[in-house]
Design a protein that fits this description.
The protein is mostly beta strands. It has one domain. It is 2% helix and 39% strand. It contains one helix and ten strands; from the N terminus they run E-E-H-E-E-E-E-E-E-E-E. The strands form two sheets. Strands 1, 2, 3, 4, 5, 6, 7 and 8 form an eight-stranded antiparallel sheet that branches. A hairpin with a 4-residue loop joins strand 5 and strand 6. The two termini are 27 Å apart.
């Protein structure tokens, strides 16, 4: 995953220096399957061990998932699932302070040092992306290997600014970075 640059021209009160999100799921959608079995989990380790990423702040953003056995097929979507906004109080993870605070998982950190909760539209904390190559599905052949490149960032959205910060939403695109033919 690669990050978006910070707005250096914005006033500190409205400048987003960091946008932290915690990823807990990464799936591919098999266009040839019915709705119940269409999603293939590519990084099952994220369910037990979510990873937090800074989408804006200058850190290296990388997720290397264990090689996943993905069935051959035509894949048209990628779904990224984010952790709930707040960790449960009884969670062991809540004793470790995150960049978002003691119990928050997704946040904005502004140029003036304030931390704001990062909201998501609706109840679902996920982002569904189409493949960037002409928005056409990706064909995965039997025994083939492929690497995906996911670019995430923040985009100003319409809405009411909260505490001087611009209203932002997570956006992204996914592309096949490298395909290796079957041996």
């Amino acid at each position: 995953m690669v990050e978006a640059p910070s707005c250096e021209q914005c006033a500190p009160v409205a400048q987003v220096r960091h946008m932290f999100v915690e990823l807990r799921g990464f799936q591919l959608h098999n266009a040839g399957e019915d709705a119940e079995t269409a999603w293939v989990d590519v990084a099952p380790e994220l369910a037990a061990n979510p990873r937090q990423f800074d989408l804006i702040g200058g850190s290296q953003v990388a997720l290397t998932a264990s090689p996943a056995m993905v069935p051959a097929g035509t894949y048209d979507l990628v779904r990224l699932q984010f952790a709930p906004q707040f960790l449960p109080v009884e969670s062991d993870a809540s004793s470790d302070k995150t960049p978002c605070g003691a119990t928050a998982t997704n946040c904005l950190i502004l140029g003036d040092g304030r931390t704001l909760d990062l909201g998501f539209a609706g109840q679902r904390r996920e982002l569904v992306l189409k493949f960037a190559q002409d928005r056409t599905p990706f064909l995965l052949l039997p025994d083939a290997r492929a690497e995906l490149r996911i670019q995430l960032g923040a985009q100003q959205s319409s809405g009411i600014a909260v505490s001087g910060a611009p209203p932002l939403r997570i956006v992204g695109e996914v592309a096949v970075q490298r395909e290796v033919s079957p041996d």
